[in-house]
Amino acid sequence: MTFKLPALPYEYVALEPYIDSETMHLHHDKHHKTYVTKLNAALAKHPDLASKSLHDLLTHIDDLPESLQTPIRNNAGGHANHSFFWRILTENAPLMPTGELLEKIEARFGTFKDFQAEFNNAALGVFGSGWAWLVVDHDGELQIMTTPNQDSPIMSGNRPLIGLDVWEHAYYLKYQNNRIDYIENFWKIINWPLVAELI
């Protein structure tokens, strides 16, 4: 299998003013593409793994040859995380979820604002590069978690519902060191109807 860079599901300018088109070009066309290129290069040396999906590679990473585990963690993780990230963003987004998803969030976190505050704190607390996530855990419960670098929540058996890239390349052109502004604007572009389908 040769992995491919997915097209964005919207125009590069679609998420402005919250994410600018220059950042989207850099993030998608350069950073994400590099993960795909390096992933394919790593797998080219292991034709026995050609039929494996991203999910298979990441959920069974400990079964891979030791020399391949770090390239897969970094590049399959980067490809999976970014492919997911683009999907859950949208223009003209509703400001909050509704229905079953909102009920589950309120049952777990108290109020939607409480959930946002906890998620914001998690995203702010990522030291260096990484991600903040809302996931469904092994017990079917909603949890907020973070992962370093390009580690994916599926590596630990969790199912992502939303994920926020807090690597500097995701926001620095527009927000410089103001990660909190980037995080707060993330809430304005989440595709909540799609997220609800992931429950």
UniProtKB/TrEMBL annotation:
GO CC, alphabetical: cytoplasm
Enzymatic reactions: 2 superoxide + 2 H(+) = H2O2 + O2
Enzyme Commission (EC) number: 1.15.1.1
Start and end residues of each Manganese/iron superoxide dismutase N-terminal domain: 2-89
Annotated Mn(2+) binding sites: 27, 82, 165, 169
Keywords: Metal-binding, Oxidoreductase
Residue ranges constituting the Manganese/iron superoxide dismutase C-terminal domain according to the UniProt record: 97-197
GO molecular function: metal ion binding; superoxide dismutase activity
InterPro entries: Mn/Fe_SOD, Mn/Fe_SOD_BS, Mn/Fe_SOD_C, Mn/Fe_SOD_N, Mn/Fe_SOD_N_sf, SOD_C_sf
Cited Pfam families: Sod_Fe_C, Sod_Fe_N
Protein family according to the UniProt entry: Belongs to the iron/manganese superoxide dismutase family.
Name this polypeptide is given: Superoxide dismutase
Organism: Latilactobacillus sakei subsp. sakei (strain 23K)
Gene responsible for this protein: sodA
